[in-house]
What we know:
Blueprint: H1 22-58, H2 60-65
Amino acid sequence: MESFKVVEEAGFLGTDYLGRDLLSRIIFGARMTLGLAMIATLLSFSTGIALGFVAAIVGGWLDQVL
């Protein structure tokens, strides 16, 4: 009957049916998503800056293409 015992301390978002804290599970699951989003943002940012510098320095037809 230990498995049916009521959990006395609930987390900020509560717990699931096994008594696990939902907030910690959401944070644990979001780590990969936030990490990939950060990498994609930094890669896009650096690529845009590099292409902007090339277009500004070279100019001409390359500037028109970009």
